[in-house]
């Protein structure tokens, strides 16, 4: 009788364990598939600008006595070089987020430094489009996390804001402290006056490789991984990324992250109890 009762109690636990293992396996397979897809995608995408650059440099040499043509080709070379830079940047970001436990080397990270780095990363692209970038409210705020990953997340949001905005618009970055459930958080909002995102697409943009307009996105070097990286980093830090957007008006992406003081204190309390 006892044995039966025990096995009845163990059985559901056992099947839950099996389920967990199966889920783990499929997750591992999924990650492996994404990695394979990614390498294939990026290798393919890298070939295009490299090929174009080599053709364009030949064209420049042939047109050396036609200054106007040289100008034109040089302009296109610059576009291809930007595309290459942004693809390589995405590779760097991806390698940064592949680390298993991002909080293993977590530290207080100054928000103004993250913002400055993100702005620096797209300064060139913003300059050619005459997009003004402005930041506010970042002084004295610290988030808790992996510096490289946080830089990748914010960098992607600012880069998208610049990429999906017309010339002579403004990109604003604003940070503030908010009292979220579970303690103080920092919100960093990136606002653009760009093309916006439809309600239908809003649900899908955080998926890996999803692009609203692949042709347009390819022109800016996108692979559709940026927002998946942002979402992954936010979640693994105990935060969240949300979007507000109106088509042809603009978008605001908000990254919410635990404030350094709170997270650190909680970790200390935890280790004191153990
Ligand atoms: P991509 O490399 O294509 O930029 P992301 O994952 O960063 O990939 O973004 C996915 C898609 O979401 C983009 O292709 C674009 O269509 C849309 N998107 C992202 N950010 C913005 C933005 N600030 N304004 C308008 N559309 C955006």
UniProtKB/TrEMBL annotation:
GO biological process, one term: cellular response to phosphate starvation
Segments of skewed composition (Basic and acidic residues): 262-274
Name the UniProt record assigns to this protein: Sensor-like histidine kinase SenX3
Alphabetized GO MF terms: ATP binding; phosphoprotein phosphatase activity; phosphorelay sensor kinase activity
Enzyme Commission number(s) of this protein: 2.7.13.3
Subcellular location: Cell membrane
Domain Histidine kinase: 41-261
Topological relation to the membrane, as annotated: Multi-pass membrane protein
Source species, domain of life: Bacteria
Organism name: Streptomyces viridochromogenes (strain DSM 40736 / JCM 4977 / BCRC 1201 / Tue 494)
Coarse class of the protein's main subcellular location: membrane
Full-sequence portion shown in this chain: 122 to 395 of 430
Listed GO CC annotations: plasma membrane
Reaction(s) catalysed (UniProt annotation): ATP + protein L-histidine = ADP + protein N-phospho-L-histidine
Species classification: Bacteria, Bacillati, Actinomycetota, Actinomycetes, Kitasatosporales
Keyword annotations: ATP-binding, Cell membrane, Kinase, Membrane, Nucleotide-binding, Phosphoprotein, Transferase, Transmembrane, Transmembrane helix, Two-component regulatory system
Keyword Transmembrane helix: yes
């Amino acid at each position: 009788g006892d044995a039966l009762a025990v096995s009845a109690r163990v059985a559901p636990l056992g099947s839950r364990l099996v389920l967990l293992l199966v889920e783990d396996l499929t997750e591992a397979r999924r990650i492996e598939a994404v990695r394979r897809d990614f390498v294939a995608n990026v290798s393919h995408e890298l070939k295009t600008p490299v090929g174009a650059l080599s053709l364009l440099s030949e064209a420049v040499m042939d047109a050396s006595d036609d200054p106007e043509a040289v100008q034109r080709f040089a302009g296109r070379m610059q576009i291809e070089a930007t595309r290459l830079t942004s693809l390589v940047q995405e590779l760097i970001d991806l390698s940064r987020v592949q680390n298993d436990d991002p909080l293993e080397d977590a530290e207080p990270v100054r928000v103004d430094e993250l913002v400055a780095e993100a702005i620096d990363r797209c300064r060139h692209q913003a300059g050619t489009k005459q997009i003004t970038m402005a930041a506010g409210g970042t002084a004295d705020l610290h988030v808790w996390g992996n510096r490289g990953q946080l830089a990748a997340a914010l960098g992607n949001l600012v880069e998208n804001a610049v990429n999906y905005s017309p010339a002579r618009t403004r990109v604003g970055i604003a940070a503030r402290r908010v009292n979220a459930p579970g303690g103080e958080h920092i919100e960093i909002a990136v606002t653009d006056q760009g093309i916006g995102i439809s309600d239908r697409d809003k649900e899908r943009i955080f998926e890996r490789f999803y692009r609203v307009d692949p042709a347009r996105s390819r022109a800016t070097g996108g692979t559709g991984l940026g927002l998946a990286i942002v979402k992954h980093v936010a979640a693994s830090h105990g935060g969240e990324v949300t979007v507000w957007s109106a088509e042809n008006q603009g978008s605001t992406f908000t990254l919410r992250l635990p404030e350094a003081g709170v997270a650190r204190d909680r970790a200390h309390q935890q280790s004191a109890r153990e």
